[in-house]
Recover the amino acids of this structure.
């Protein structure tokens, strides 16, 4: 048996990386495709979770970051910059360390989960908290990358999309064909764009016989694509997707329309309910934004949009450990016991 080599080496023939280019990798990708037993029962479909929290920095961003940083390094960049709601910055910070580069990150003040902030800090990135939201951070990062010698590694960098499309390849490679429907959370809309590119390439070249319908879900307080106009002050507990003016808006609409799919919104209440269901019934701990995919699928089931037996993949984009606040909030406090078996047994209801 051999170790998974990371998405560039595993899919080199499908990525724009020249032979001999030194690869910056943490062996990202190769993530589990887990059958979702309870969600399958509830929807009458064959549902799988693509567990992207199993990536090296705990989110799908690593797939795109290995590409963006590899090519930035090759082009001679000494520093990279990104705007982020937390996961992009965590990933950029780690890959910049591997590449021996400086990493600067711009984050919306007070709206980044603690675990993600800890990652950017411990990897030694230079963090600026911006008095604004993610959209403001991205405007600033773009401006800086145009005026100063620093490479932008947000998903407006096409190499990010190239790397992230490998998740679609992995799914087809594991299932033997594309699913009927692919569901994912939508924030800046790079990931839905990347999956659609991956599925289209695999359908054009043979590994898949068809492409799936792409179903994207935004948080209802941050749902510009659903509303058809930018949201000035986006709000949601799912801070990762708290975005009012997605950079990949048009490509996301193309993914929706060309695939016969949809982009809809789910409420914070629906997101948290799916978040708890995944943890308590499937054993999969994701961050709140990630649960938007499953929340969306459950909503679609209630709306009668699913046919029995359809094969569905939900991407769960980030690890629950990044943002444990919602796991702890409202949960019963652990009971303290003395070092005594009888007392412990009684408290556990065993006695
Ligand atoms: N889920 C998680 C956990 C995310 O971190 C993001 C985006 C998304 C979903 C949405 O993906 O932007 O490609 O539509 N996070 C970015 C960041 C914005 O800065 O980490 P998208």
């Amino acid at each position: 048996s051999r170790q998974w080599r990371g998405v560039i080496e595993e899919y080199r023939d499908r990525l724009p990386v020249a032979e001999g280019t030194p690869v910056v990798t943490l062996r990202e990708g190769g993530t589990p495709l887990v059958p979702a037993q309870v969600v399958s029962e509830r929807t009458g479909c064959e549902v799988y979770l693509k567990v992207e929290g199993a990536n090296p920095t705990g989110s799908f961003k690593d797939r795109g970051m290995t590409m963006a940083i590899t090519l930035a390094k090759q082009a001679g960049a000494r520093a990279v910059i990104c705007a982020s709601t937390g996961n992009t910055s965590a990933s950029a910070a780690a890959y910049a360390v591997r590449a021996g580069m400086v990493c600067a990150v711009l984050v919306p003040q007070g709206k980044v989960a603690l675990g993600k902030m800890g990652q950017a800090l411990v990897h030694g990135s230079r963090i600026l908290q911006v008095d604004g939201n993610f959209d403001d951070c991205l405007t600033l990062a773009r401006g800086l990358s145009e005026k100063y010698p620093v490479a932008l590694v947000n998903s407006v960098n096409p190499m990010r999309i190239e790397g992230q499309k490998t998740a679609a390849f992995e799914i087809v490679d594991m299932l033997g064909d594309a699913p009927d429907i692919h569901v994912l959370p939508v924030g800046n809309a790079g990931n839905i764009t990347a999956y659609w590119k991956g599925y289209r390439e695999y359908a054009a070249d043979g590994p898949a016989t068809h492409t799936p319908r792409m179903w994207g879900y935004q948080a209802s307080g941050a749902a510009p694509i659903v509303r058809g106009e930018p949201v000035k002050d986006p709000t949601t507990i799912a801070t990762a997707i708290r975005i009012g003016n997605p950079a990949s808006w048009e490509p996301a609409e193309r993914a929706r329309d060309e695939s016969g799919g949809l982009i809809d919104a789910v409420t914070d209440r629906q997101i948290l309910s799916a978040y708890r269901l995944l943890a308590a019934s499937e054993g999969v701990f994701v961050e709140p934004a990630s649960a938007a995919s499953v929340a969306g699928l459950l909503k679609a089931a209630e709306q009668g949009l699913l046919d029995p037996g359809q094969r569905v993949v939900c991407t769960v984009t980030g690890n629950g450990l990044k943002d444990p606040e919602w796991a702890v909030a409202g949960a019963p406090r652990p009971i303290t016991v003395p070092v005594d078996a009888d007392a412990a047994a009684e408290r556990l209801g065993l006695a």
